[in-house]
Amino acid sequence: MTIFTRKISLSIPVMLASSAMVANFAAAAEKDALEEIVVTAQKRSERLSDVPLSIVAATADQLANQGIDRAEDLGRIVPSFSYQHNPLDGGPVIAIRGVGTFGASTISPTVTVYVDQVPLPYSTMSPGATLDLERLEVLKGPQGTLFGQNSTGGAINYIAAKPTRDLHAGADLRYGRFDEVDLEGFVSGPLSDTVSARVAGRRESRGDWQISQTRPGDELGKQDSDAARLLVDWKPSDASRFELNLNTWHDKSDSQANQYVRFAPQRSINDTPPGYPESYFALRDLPAAPDDARIADWDANPSQPLQRDQDFYQGSLRADFDLAQTLTLTSISAYSDYSAPSGTDVDGTSFNNIFNAQDTSIDSFSQELRLAGDLWTRTHFTLGVNYQHDTVDLTNFVTYTSSTSGVGPLRYTDFFSSSNEKVDTEAVFAAVDYTLTESLTAQAAARYTTQKRDFHGCLGDGGDGALAAAVDFLRIQSGGVSQPAAPGACVTMDQNLVTLPIVTNSLDENNVSWRVGLSWKPQSETLVYANVTKGYKAGGFQPLPAVGAEQLKPVVQESVLSYEVGIKAALGRAVQIAGAVYYADYRDKQTLGFVELPPFGTVASNVNIPKSNIKGAELEMTALPLAGLRLTVGASYLRSHVDDSFVVSDGFSRPVDIQGESFTNAPELHLVSDAQYEHAVSSNLSAFFGASCTYRSAAQSVYGEDPQFEIPSYALVDLRAGIQTQDEKWRVELWGRNVLDKFYLLDIERGSSDVVERTVGMPATYGISFRARY
I need a labelling partner for 580 at 20 to 30 A (CA). Which of 56, 306, 520, 693 fits? Predict the structure, then answer.
């Protein structure tokens, strides 16, 4: 809900401002008023201060000046935004206001990403979305009415910079620590009287930044990625407009290695049956990694490169037809193709405790058709339909030597888990705003969605027959008849201990997302609103190494019923504030838990937490206390709570009742702040100095409240300084990120290995940037 402006900002954690302070701010900045952003959060252009939703909006200038160029950076400007790193494919796992789901890259996210209202339905498709932006909009809370069924946490809408009617060009070059080189440029202009185009590209590279704990000369961490976009706008008449978007990105960067924390075998040598000893000899005396972000470890000779090989292609076409003066028909068609082989060593050691090679392929087609306009003078409406078809394939090839890599006398070190899903989603939606009085407006919106998922998948033998023989040994021990699977075939069994050629299942769900609200404008620059919103996230399947078919049952759709009251106000020309309080009733939250699988006992499976809740408050402020000085601050307070008794997995894969616990990766307090002072040094040049600080309180990475799995609180400080021309044609900047070199964690867990390992954030980085515009 922060109102950002064309010039950049700094935020300081200030929660209260006296009326005298506000008056001083206004007097000091009488000649430098805040400029408002226009957003499309309700799929039409509106002033941010007029939209009765909780939104953070940021211009391209602010994103660039604060070094925000990927999803994990959004926590610097969006209070209540949390990010985790998916160790298997490097994709973002995003939560807003505590609503998020950690899992495979092929599951539907709780926070959906869009570029110009075109969906990127899986989070792993989103890294290239930040290319050549006009602005960013982050919508908090359920967004299932206008933006689809999988947005219980919120929606992120990137707005691409559009083609211009005059010739423009620009380039940004950044050089930083670890030989980082980031070059981005664009050319935009007319092709004819009715056609204009914009082409943009970006090349990112960086040298290795991680150092092996046991082999000091071995390094990892290079970045190697490219992105490009072509936009073509065609306006054949005053009543019709077409927008073509062709974009692609490619990432061949190294996978990030984890840090070893301690030895934690899944099965002890003294257990019945006993664990296997190789990992004991290799890991039990290994020293923990130091609190140094650069130190990590990985296999000396991995079975395949520790590298991603991601390719993404997308084409979309938007067509707008003005059927009447206030009536517009819009069609948005899009096709996306994503493929990503990748190799990851997640155990943080040089011993092959577990190595994962993942191969992902996603094809997605979507079509939206909507009619929007005004009826009479009091009503604005939107009516539309959606269709989406996805084909999602994921195979994990695992090589490991652990305390559990065998059954009795039979050993195995390789297996795969596979899943194939075909997903068809259909929806119809409507929204209406009705002006009750000159200052009071009622809003209502609803979407009916039906979705069918067909699943095929299993746990498979690695190709040498070893796992097939081990599972057959299990079957015989449990009173079954010998029925070994063929080498390389599926080994998952049904409840009668019969090996299945493939596990098949389907999930057919429907729901109605809705929102009702009132907004009141007692004066032109003040908005008070109240909303009640119901949103859903689709159920689905997550591939697991499942001995029993019961482990691959789907989780059902989750829902969030949110109550929110908020305010947006301008206090004079120099102070803007936005705040909200909310309560959310969370049902069937999706997570990893357990099922009983006779005769094997308790085994991992995806489950739904029946009932939980979230309550919180947010406050943001932008102020101009002095000429040339801009301050912004944002703060969020959040409490999540599991209401009823429910058993899931703790950090050591043990059953734990989580009643009364908070959600994972949901810190109570999150503060963001930024400040910039700009001063003219000549008739053509100005100098600027800026600083930002982000604070996040402690949170648990897994359920169970074990202090070993706590992500400690941390604060990060960034600095910048430079000069630019008054017309902003060129700019030179010195910058530093995490300048205090704070050691901080993104995640800590045991996973499927015999060790506790952690994922760390980047160390201090610094460099110089140059920007030119024509």
Answer: 693
* CA distance linking residue 334 with residue 366, whole number of Å: 5
Secondary structure tally for the chain: helices H, strands E: 4, 43
The 10 Å Cβ neighbour count of residue 683 is: 6
| Secondary structure letter of residue 16 according to DSSP | -
User: What phi and psi values does residue 611 have, to the nearest 5 degrees?
Assistant: -145, 130
pLDDT for the residue numbered 28: 40
Please name which of 769, 749, 673, 748 lies closest in space to residue 716, comparing C-alpha atoms: 673
Cα–Cα distance for residue pair 577/750, rounded to 1 Å: 43
Span 99-156, pLDDT tens digits: 988 766 678 888 989 999 999 999 889 989 999 999 999 999 999 898 876 788 999 9
pLDDT score recorded for residue 2: 38
- Cβ atoms 364, 415 nearer than 8 A: no
pLDDT digits (tens, 9 = 90+) for 401-434: 999 898 889 999 999 999 999 999 999 999 999 9
Omega before residue 599 within 30° of 0, cis:
yes
Strands (E), 15-80: 38-39, 46-47, 55-59
DSSP 61: H
Question: Would you state the structure tokens that stand for residue 7, as one six-digit string?
Answer: 């010039």
**How far from 621 is each of 14, 177, 521, 545, 710, CA to CA, in Å?**
8, 33, 19, 48, 31
At 482-496, the pLDDT tens digits run 889 999 999 999 988
Q: Where are the beta strands (DSSP E) in 599-739?
A: 601-626, 629-642, 647-649, 655-657, 669-680, 685-696, 699-700, 710-711, 714-725, 730-737
